[in-house]
Design brief:
heterodimer; A: 285 residues; mainly alpha; 67% helix; 1% strand; B: 443 residues; 24% helix; 33% strand
């Protein structure tokens, strides 16, 4: 080792919390193996002692779709833009489901991991990131299910075709993951101080669903309320998803750009707050 | 040798009481102080950390102005009583908690074992958990793969390696967990005493491994414990923490010497510790108000020579009607805390009433104990030995320290030789071996 100046040799300096913009993104990269292990753990562990195993991934959207079709389609008679109700609801549910799962799972990061966080150092961001990725597996299975239904309807004569907009789907997933993660880590950072936010999140997510075109198409909405739904960054995502697969409604690039900017802002705030809290939370949790 | 850890002016403040952090009004107060460029109003009222006396402030300094350096390849011990700040210091060094002020500079990769088996998932198999735990501790997949066989071998649970760890016995669980930890190869290893749980064999294995890591591989080891024997065997240098402050530092022998003095320094009288000591047992019908250990000339001390007379002067106060009082003073063994000998006396058999106080002295006329430390146990009860009336003081006073005195010097007893608790001199009177029976007699 070359000992030129003793001060510069220190590989690590532990200091009081200072500055808001000290991310350890390099550290996160260094711990990518841990990220992988967490994903694996989540996947193996969650369904290990259930009867149906990964079939729950299928069951959940199917049952919800049936319920929605009966309640909102048949009883409340909400229009579905001319799309078969099953496909309409399922596309909304699958999309919303991923976002909602990301949000609720990451929002309890500090509380569920308090035990590990209290004993070992690793970049805390690895935890919520692993949640997002392991939920992606579930989402993938559900999209597969959705496509099966889509093919069935196509054989039955529904007019849907492959089109260029389907290439947007990975980007939509990225947006949802970013939004879910961003909101989730902001909430998780705040819950270390104010515990009651945990309760807020579970019904907040539910309420937010009604402000997203999951059970109704945007076109069915009265003009004067439409801005509320459009302000929701998830609206453009769900809408574009439907447009890509079902060619219903319209594709509005402006709305999608709005969602993108929203996602970047939320995620940036999230990472800043999260990094700040990860250093002090052991004293408050 | 160069320093690999440098701790400078390290302080850590904790808030006691309310769980769940701060309130919004407090946050606003802080913000207001910050805007006016003043110090955090809540930091000012912090006081030193003393578990026994009840503090006036909600804020305590768990660590205050700690400075020390650890050199490359050193085995470095940290000791202190419960609540002295050891764990807080470890947490800061492991980057789990952040200091309030000051800094720590570190050279090289650090692995800290505040616990074994962190992140073990009960549903996963032993093999999966090796990978999971290894990655949490900072190893890469590749590293774990190359060491996998050696880890499984070290753990000795090869047969169950593909069984979920929830089916493991707790012993197997700890073995597997420690096997992973033992294969970390950091430049600096930080180990908490929690590692030294488990059976004697396991403790030995842990300590042996730490010794090897330092001696053979030239790594630095930081070891925290209040097991003085382990520190003495393992560490070259030691610091002592007391109430969050650095009490002494230096070679382990020097440090242990000052630690002994620190422990002796506990004051016992009516106003301080004895009234606030929170771990007292009994309902409080009668309370000790003072305990003193005296020699025959009424000088207070805790060090005696074997064979000397020891007096225990106790005072008490009655808070509820009681039928008589009995007093017990017992000497315990330092290791297993078993009672070695006791003096049990009836102080009165008459009814006594609240507000009455008393004093008593019990003398052990000569304690023929072998040199060592003997924790003391004091107990007051009514004459029916009804447990409700009990007041007990143990572990609060310093232990009685017996050293080899003149009494032993002229006897056949050699304190350096292994023996039981009592220094009972013995000699072999008859030593004849016949074919039919072995006959020997000790006196």
């Amino acid at each position: 080792m070359n000992k030129s100046s003793p001060e510069s040799e220190w590989t690590l300096e532990i200091k009081p919390v200072s500055g808001w913009f000290n991310f350890h993104l390099k550290d996160v990269w260094r711990y990518r193996d841990l990220l992988f292990m967490f994903v694996r753990r989540d996947f193996v562990a969650v369904y290990k002692q259930t009867i149906l195993g990964p079939f729950w991934f299928f069951l959940q959207p199917i049952l919800t779709t049936i319920t929605f079709t009966i309640v909102f389609g048949n009883i409340a008679k909400i229009p579905t833009d001319g799309i078969p109700p099953i496909l309409f609801y399922m596309s909304g549910i699958v999309c919303w489901g991923y976002f909602a799962d990301c949000l609720t799972r990451t929002s309890s990061t500090f509380i569920t991991n308090a035990n590990i966080f209290g004993k070992v150092y690793f970049p805390r961001l690895v935890s919520p990131l692993s949640n997002i990725i392991s939920l992606l597996l579930k989402f993938g299975i559900q999209i597969f299910l959705f496509i099966c239904f889509l093919i069935y309807y196509k054989i039955q004569g529904l007019n849907v075709n492959f089109n260029i907009y389907m290439l947007l789907v990975p980007y939509l997933i990225f947006l949802m993951a970013g939004l879910g993660l961003g909101f989730g880590i902001i909430v998780s950072s705040l819950t270390t101080k104010y515990r009651d936010l945990t309760f807020l999140i579970s019904f907040g997510v539910q309420l937010l669903m009604y402000a997203t075109p999951v059970i109704y198409p945007l076109s069915a909405l009265p003009e004067k309320y439409r801005w509320i739904v459009l302000a929701n960054p998830m609206t453009a995502i769900v809408d574009t998803f439907r447009f890509a697969f079902l060619q219903a409604g319209q594709f509005n690039p402006g709305n999608l750009i709005y969602s993108t900017i929203f996602m970047i802002v939320v995620l940036s705030i999230g990472i800043v707050v999260f990094n700040r809290v990860e250093k002090t939370f052991m004293d408050t949790v | 040798m160069s320093a690999v850890i440098k701790v400078e002016d390290l302080s850590k403040m904790y808030r006691l009481g309310l769980v769940g952090g701060r309130t919004i009004s407090e946050d606003l107060n802080r913000l207001w102080a910050k805007i006016r460029g003043k110090e955090d109003p809540y930091i000012k009222i912090g006081e030193t950390n003393n578990r026994i006396t009840k503090g006036k402030s909600e804020f305590v300094w768990a660590l205050k102005n700690i400075n020390f350096e650890v050199n490359n390849g050193e085995r470095f011990g940290i000791i202190g009583k419960n609540g002295a700040g050891k764990s807080t210091l470890l947490k800061i060094l492991s980057r789990v908690a952040n200091p309030t002020t000051g800094s720590v500079k570190v050279k090289g990769r650090v692995a800290s074992l505040l616990e074994v088996g962190t992140g073990f998932h009960p549903e996963l198999t032993g093999r999966d958990n090796i990978f999971l735990n290894g990655s949490i501790l900072g190893m890469t997949q590749q590293e774990i793969k190359t060491k996998l066989d050696s880890i499984i071998d070290f753990s000795g649970v090869e047969r169950y390696i593909d069984t979920p760890v929830k089916r493991y016995s707790s012993g197997m669980y700890v073995r597997l967990a420690f096997a992973v930890a033992a294969h970390l190869e950091p430049e600096i290893l930080i180990v908490d005493e929690v590692l030294a749980v488990g059976d004697a064999e396991f403790q030995k294995k842990c300590l042996g491994k730490m010794h090897d890591v330092s001696e053979k591989e030239g790594r630095t080891v930081l070891f925290v414990s209040h097991n003085l024997q382990a520190i003495k065997n393992l560490c070259q240098k030691t610091i002592i923490l007391n109430n969050g402050q650095l009490f002494a530092s230096g070679s382990t022998d020097e440090a242990l010497h000052s630690y002994n003095e620190l422990v002796r320094d506990v004051k016992i009288d009516a106003d301080t510790d004895i009234n606030n000591y929170m771990n007292r047992r009994g309902k409080g019908m009668i309370r000790f108000t003072g305990i003193e250990v005296l020699d025959i000339n009424d000088n207070k001390r805790f060090n005696f020579e074997s064979g000397e007379a020891v007096r225990f002067k106790i005072s008490y106060k009655v808070f509820e009607d009681m039928k008589g009082i009995t007093l017990t003073v017992a000497l315990m063994s330092g290791l297993s805390k078993e009672c070695l000998t006791l003096a049990h006396h009836e102080i009165t058999n008459k009814k006594i009433h609240p507000g009455e106080t008393g004093e008593a002295i019990i003398e052990f006329t000569d304690i023929n104990l072998k040199p060592g430390e003997y924790p003391l146990y004091f107990e007051l009860m009514d004459k029916d030995l009804n447990p409700i009336s009990k007041d007990v003081i143990d572990d609060l006073t310093p232990p009685l320290v017996i050293s080899a005195g003149d009494y032993l010097k002229n006897s056949a007893f050699d304190p350096a030789k292994p023996s039981g608790f009592f220094a009972a001199p013995s000699r072999l009177i008859v030593n004849e071996i016949s074919k039919k029976e072995i006959f020997s007699k000790a006196l």
